[in-house]
């Protein structure tokens, strides 16, 4: 079959989402090619995972897709219903179900459970695989396959600018703070100085904050390494929701990848609650470009700083509801 990757991705911990992205076209003449394409769909090499992919039209274009950790046996049926619901409420008329595990019986049980809950979509392939073998409902005796880091689909994805990580945890590190204890002290001093300066200068207007942040973001886009004072200025102005929302509403899908990189960079160089707004903005950018892994991770990182930060909670609801970016 000829698969075209024209859909979005979801990485879920019992959450799901859909995004639309533009990616190269791959040919998958064999199941082994399909298995080697999976890391390009999520930006990392999934393990112990359940994957569902919606297919569109005669060319089997990839649409909505999701990944979640394989659940324990007692949660299998409830998880199967959840997954089937997200697959049926999204695009396409057929689906691929894939279970990845070093315990093939566990993966098989999961994909078969999901298959029984699908009523409105035809199951094109129902597969389960270890790192060296794969099985399907039509191939119960199993066949060998080999993971190829230089597979055509991976080479095309990397040449198109995609970074494929070895595992999910390496992506999470993008959203951690890189500050040393000395940096934190410097931030506290800069924060105090900024507050004094703003109060004395009476520059508390929203328009002043927008102008200041716009100037610094332009410099960062041009390659400028932001100073602690500049980062504090950006972060403290973004605590004003009118300022934050101004930059939120400027995000469009066409430029969202660049904005994701910028907000991630800023968040990684800030401490504590100052990280919340940049992380939430990064989460929104990731949703718009079809990066489900980073959508979830950025939102969760913000909530670790402030557990009721509203924009991050909104992004989690977007994921749980399986909303496409077109819904924005």
Descriptive terms for the model:
single chain; alpha/beta; nine-stranded mixed beta sheet; 9 strands
Task: Please outline what is shown here.
The N terminus is likely disordered. The chain is an alpha/beta fold and 328 residues long.
Largest sheet, in brief, is: 9 strands, mixed
What does the average pLDDT come to? 86
Proportion of helical residues: 40-55%
Uncertain segments are 1-7, 12-22
Radius of gyration: 22 Å
**What series of H and E elements makes up the topology?**
EEEHEEHEHEEEHHHHHHHHHH
Q: How many helices in DSSP terms?
A: 13
Distance between the termini: 33 Å
Please tally the β strands and state the result: 9
Structural class: alpha/beta
User: How large is the share of residues in beta strands?
Assistant: 15-25%
- CA-based shape: elongated
Describe the protein in words.
- The chain has 328 residues and is α/β, with parallel strands linked by helices.
- Helices cover 49% and strands 16% of the residues.
- It has 13 helices and nine strands.
- Strands 1, 2, 3, 4, 5, 6, 7, 8 and 9 form a nine-stranded mixed β-sheet that branches.
- α6 packs across α8, α7 (206-221) packs across α9 and α11 (276-289) runs antiparallel to α12.
- It is elongated and about 75 Å long.
- 42% of the residues are buried.
- Mean pLDDT is 86; it is low at 1-7 and 12-22.
